[in-house]
Design goal:
Two copies of one chain form a homodimer.
Chain A (H helix, E strand, L loop, with lengths): L7 H6 L20 H10 L2 H6 L1 H14 L5 E2 L6 H8 L1 E4 L3 E4 L6 H6 L10 H14 L5 E6 L1 H10 L7 H9 L1 H25 L3 E6 L7 H18 L3 E2 L2 E2 L2 E5 L6 H5 L5 E3 L6 H8 L4 E6 L8 H15 L5 E5 L9 H15 L5
Parallel strand pairs in A: 1-4, 4-5, 5-8, 8-9, 9-10, 10-11
Antiparallel strand pairs in A: 2-3, 6-7
Helix pairs in contact in A: 2-4, 4-7, 8-10, 9-10, 10-11, 13-14, 14-15
Chain lengths: ~350, ~350
């Protein structure tokens, strides 16, 4: 069942030899593609798109029809778990996600339960099953979740934030309440990701978008500790094959050693670190994913290729590198530039895998 | 003339012995103080406050009346230079600063001239002179500027930004245009800061708020290079005393060695790096400023003192540390907590200076 036509991505995550460096793009299914916008319009709002397995599958596959990507990633939102916990997720145009009933105190934390991945969250598993079926073994399917800290920032702030005032107030004034919340969310993430694997996900990624707003000590206490708990609780093998786990903390470049020590298979890098330094620091332990500045896709094809060459040369010879952007692709990027990027990775990486 | 009653801050920047660790707070004159709000209301809008030397002096001195701070910092805006270049600075409530005429192309860069610090920017020098006079030698006065890259982000984006799309498009597609702009801004910053010193500033700080959104290579090319040029061009001694220069790049923790190599006297740290690591990396070259998470001021007095103790112990014995927050104080902080913080630094640091 797990016979993949292209398993370059899984092999690179496990540092097994590959013919060229695999590549995918965070938010590769998204608004920079006109076909995505058309499907999204058909679905209505964003969450309706996530909740419709056929349409979620359609947008997941769209970038693969355009580009020779080495992986597909489940189309979903990072806030499905808090929504299933009853916080009332909604989107206001131009404002980002919001919650009707944010977490403000211990009583709110006591009230929330662990959502059933095949209950309130079954729409996600249905999407995973549909996408896996429709992928027909072409490339592996990545499942994902937000990190407990990142999910908690939205749950406590009630939406996006700049200064993270409310959750930091909770972290510093009522740390026990926040730890209770993070622990519940971590348990939910474990069952959620394991259900994604059972439904067909072949690799897992945890997005810690907001861990980088913490001090080193607070990062370990409020974010990394719970990602480590998740890594420990995950199904690491399925269908006779390893299920690699990638942890990504945006602006986490100073804590790579700590992240690698969780037992994850790979560490995601944003563009603020030189991949050569990252490899020197943790390349003996884990694979690396990254790390071109997404804004580089605004540049000319020549400049994009130059940057790809620079990053490939930084990583150097051998397997253990999954090329990606350092964060999601911007919505106003020309899809042709994304194509230039992907082809450049494949073409320019061949000499590093002789 | 430069006889200071308290020169702890200047001494620490030059690693000369002190009796306790000096402390000030970024944005210490600001909206968390009710007396600031009253003066601001009197002035009208924000720029009118900056342009009125008496009122700018008043808000600069307000935090010093409440707390035993070891330095005063000129009350002004980082966007005075682009405003004086004719870009038309204005503020929309809740929106941050904006420019009526942002820089979009080479022709726009060609048009802008170097503002005269005692011409269009004389209001800043008048504020410096007034504050210096009214400080009566109590503590030193810090002058400041934004870094060329940080100023250019506002000039090209037309205001605040999240993804820095326009300036990165320029950096990657028209790097020569951006370099021309950065070079002009750097020249202006040099004459602006040297005029502040001539007017009475006893220390200088350059705020690179947005350098951390660049890759290491792009940071060196578009931000650090121009800060290094400024450091080279500054008056480093005045009134028979050194004028120390501090460079601060938010999210610049991975590039400390490069920042320290510019020849600056001190490097500002945000809270995402452990100060013990920073000292091990660059403590032989420069003094360090920082680095408590500003959100820690939401915590209880006990927790604030615990964090201060942690940071003091991280830096360890000897001079070369100016305590500060890792970024500006939040506007909804209880002023009493700021007082707890400042007193904790003074009291808990004594044993490190025996």
């Amino acid at each position: 069942m797990n016979q993949l036509k292209n398993d370059r991505y899984l092999r690179a995550l496990l540092k097994q030899p590959v013919d060229k460096t695999p590549v995918w793009m965070m938010r590769q299914a998204g608004r920079y593609l006109p076909e995505y916008k058309a499907t999204r319009a058909q679905a209505g709002d964003f969450m309706s798109l996530c909740k419709n397995a056929e349409l979620a599958c359609e947008v997941t596959l769209q970038p693969l029809r355009r580009f020779p990507l080495d992986a597909a990633i489940l189309f979903s939102d990072i806030l499905t778990i808090p929504d299933a916990m009853g916080l009332g997720l909604y989107f206001e145009t131009g404002e980002g996600p919001k919650f009707e009933r944010p977490i403000t105190c211990k009583a709110d934390v006591d009230k929330i339960g662990l959502p059933d991945p095949e209950g309130e969250l079954q729409y996600v598993m249905n999407a995973v099953r549909t996408i896996r079926r429709e992928l027909k073994g072409e490339v592996p399917l990545i499942g994902f979740s937000g990190s407990p800290w990142t999910l908690a920032t939205y749950m406590v702030e009630g939406g996006s934030s700049k200064a993270f005032t409310k959750i930091k107030k909770m972290a510093f004034a009522e740390p026990k309440t926040l730890h209770m919340l993070l622990d519940k969310v971590a348990d939910s993430v474990i069952s959620y990701l394991n259900a994604q694997v059972a439904a067909g996900a072949q690799s897992l990624m945890i997005f810690d978008t907001w861990g980088g707003v913490l001090s080193p000590r607070d990062y370990r206490e409020f974010s990394l500790q719970y990602m480590a708990k998740i890594v420990d609780g995950l199904t690491r093998e399925n269908e006779g094959r390893k299920v690699p786990v990638t942890l990504f903390t945006k602006n986490g470049g100073m804590w790579l050693e700590d992240i690698a020590a969780t037992g994850c298979d790979a560490v995601g890098l944003d563009w603020t670190i030189d991949i050569a330094d990252a490899k020197a620091r943790i390349g003996d332990k884990v694979a690396l994913q990254g790390n071109m500045d997404p804004s580089m896709l605004y540049a000319s094809p020549e400049r994009i290729c130059d940057e790809v060459a620079h990053i490939l040369s930084g990583f150097g010879e051998g397997s253990g590198h999954v090329f990606n952007l350092g964060h999601g692709i911007h919505l106003d990027v020309d899809p042709e530039h994304a194509g230039v990027f992907i082809n450049a990775v494949h073409e320019l990486s061949v000499p590093y895998h002789k």
